[in-house]
């Protein structure tokens, strides 16, 4: 059983939250708290963008999906765009199966997520 590590960075183009490890019912509170704090930070950032980088995640359960959706709703209410970076099947498969990718399309890299100029993403 892996731990969840979360790091938040502020870039010129966005607030970035990187998660690594397992996101499940045991660790989701840490992720949710980090995402809530990041939304608040992004709401004061000139770019008003939050990137959630999940490439280091080794397990992504339904709790993680709910945390992402809650983050997206909070961010939308604050006028913050949320972009998800995910390339691993552990994260992509649950996002695609639940159709969350229609709301939060995954990007292949941080650079790709930061390069988006359409704020509807």
TrEMBL record:
Q: Which InterPro entries match?
A: Anti-sigma_ant, STAS_dom, STAS_dom_sf
| TM regions (residue ranges) | none
Question: Could you list the residue ranges forming a coiled coil in this record?
Answer: none
Domain spans labelled STAS: 4-117
Domain of life assignment: Bacteria
| PANTHER family listed in its UniProt record | ANTI-SIGMA FACTOR ANTAGONIST TM_1081-RELATED (PTHR33495:SF2), ANTI-SIGMA FACTOR ANTAGONIST TM_1081-RELATED-RELATED (PTHR33495)
* Record-stated family: Belongs to the anti-sigma-factor antagonist family.
This chain belongs to the protein called Anti-sigma factor antagonist
